[in-house]
Design a protein that fits this description.
This protein has 407 residues and is α+β, with helices and mostly antiparallel strands. Helices cover 55% and strands 14% of the residues. The structure holds zinc ion.
């Protein structure tokens, strides 16, 4: 799976860097690793190898879990490598409970690029799957096996060494991984392939995204239904598994759909129409205690442009003040606290408001200054986007560009 960065969230534990891509692992992976190890050690491997010692079984099961995540990583690295080849930057990969996630920096520029980045991951999983299965069969001699003869089959399987056993498990699992990821709904790879096709047909990226994410909701709902059927049939493990994955897919697809609707609402509007222009501004030499008493406390404005002779030089926010001990307020100037203009994420007045959505998602900022040369024209906050979106008749209850209440 891979998606364009939707919101900066805690990516988990960093465990390395490969080809310029930061690698993270979410804590939920430990749970999945433990589940795989337990399932194989106490279940499948006991059945395949009644003659193995406990140590042999559990070590092989643990190795299987590690190899599983290694093959998920290979799948994600394939996305990242193809992204780099086609000019879409991938800055990090996160392994988490439902597999892996490559964070694309922005969206692909053409349908064909989208198609190649999305398609390569499942292809790599498929190649690992077929390769591991073939090698495992070669090592264990299961090629010549008459699978109809169950006694012979049991003998051959139980004679497999740990290495062949690992391959014979890893192979089919990777084939399943490829097939699952090819399910035709966003945010799965298959959904991206589908979007590339819709995109090529309609030449409208946002419309294609809406269609492909609706398909994702359908796939998700289908998996939940499958999970319920399994549960009704008394199969607790697969039932919960399908239902959880289905629900996760459904919500992710719904999120993607809403995002596409929002982008459409902001695509044709210049950011200057959304900015707030009526706000207080302060000079750089102003003492912080005066700033607090006469400006910060006097209004509910939280971000203050700092201007010297009509030139925009920086932005000071109430959080900057919070970090300064009160004893220092009297002899510190606002200039020393502010974020200078050169380090601010800014926009030009003519840029489409859609760009602000991307910036809010990618950068950890609460407002974007709109500048023309050295002059500040206004500020745009997330709440301003919300106001505009609601005015357009958009669903303003929980748009994706607002920060979640919890953070
Ligand atoms: Zn993928």
């Amino acid at each position: 799976m891979h998606t364009a960065t939707t919101r900066a969230r805690a990516p988990g534990l960093r465990f390395g860097r490969l080809f310029g891509v930061e690698l993270f692992v979410d804590w939920s992976v430990l749970l999945v690793g433990a589940l795989i190890t337990f399932n194989l050690g106490a279940g499948l491997f006991r059945f395949w190898h009644p003659g193995w010692s406990d140590a042999e079984r559990w070590v092989t099961a643990g190795a299987a879990a590690v190899l599983f995540f290694a093959s998920v990583l290979a799948h994600e690295l394939a996305h990242a490598a193809m992204g780099r080849l086609t000019g879409v930057k991938v800055d990090r990969i996160t392994l988490f409970i439902f597999g892996g996630h490559a964070h694309l920096h922005g969206e692909p520029k053409r349908p064909l690029i989208e198609l190649s980045i999305s398609g390569i991951g499942p292809l790599v999983s498929l190649a690992i799957g077929i390769g591991a299965t073939a090698l495992g069969m070669g090592l264990s001699g299961t090629y010549e096996l008459d699978w109809g003869n169950s006694e012979q089959a049991e003998l051959v399987v139980s004679a497999m060494g740990p290495f062949a056993t690992l391959l014979m498990w890893l192979g089919p699992v990777n084939v399943a991984l490829a097939l699952f990821n090819l399910l035709p709904g966003l945010p799965l790879d298959g959904g991206r392939v589908l979007r590339a096709i819709f995109w090529a047909a309609t030449r409208d990226f946002d419309k294609a995204t809406r269609w492909a994410s609706r398909c994702g909701q359908l796939v998700g709902a289908g998996l939940v239904a499958l999970g319920v059927l399994e549960l009704l049939g008394g199969r607790l493990g697969p039932g919960i598994g399908f239902a959880l994955i289905g629900w996760f897919l459904f919500s992710a697809a719904r999120f993607t759909h809403r995002q596409a609707r929002e982008r459409e609402a902001f695509a044709a509007v210049p950011i200057s129409r959304l900015m707030r222009t009526q706000m207080g501004r302060v000079p750089p030499q102003l003492a912080v205690d005066t700033f607090v008493s006469e400006h910060l406390m006097a209004t509910d404005q939280r971000a203050w442009p700092v201007e010297a002779y009509g030139q925009f030089v920086g932005l000071v926010v109430w959080d900057d003040v919070r970090r300064l001990p009160q004893s220092a307020w009297a002899h510190t100037a606002v200039r020393e606290l502010m974020t200078p203009r050169s380090r601010l994420v800014a926009m030009k007045p003519g840029e489409p408001a859609e760009r602000a959505l991307e910036l809010f998602a990618e950068r950890d900022v609460d407002q974007i200054p709109i500048v023309e040369g050295a002059r500040l024209l206004g500020l745009v906050r997330r709440a301003d986007l919300l106001k505009w979106y609601a005015l357009q008749g958009g669903d303003d209850r929980r748009p994706t560009f607002m920060r979640p209440v919890s953070s």
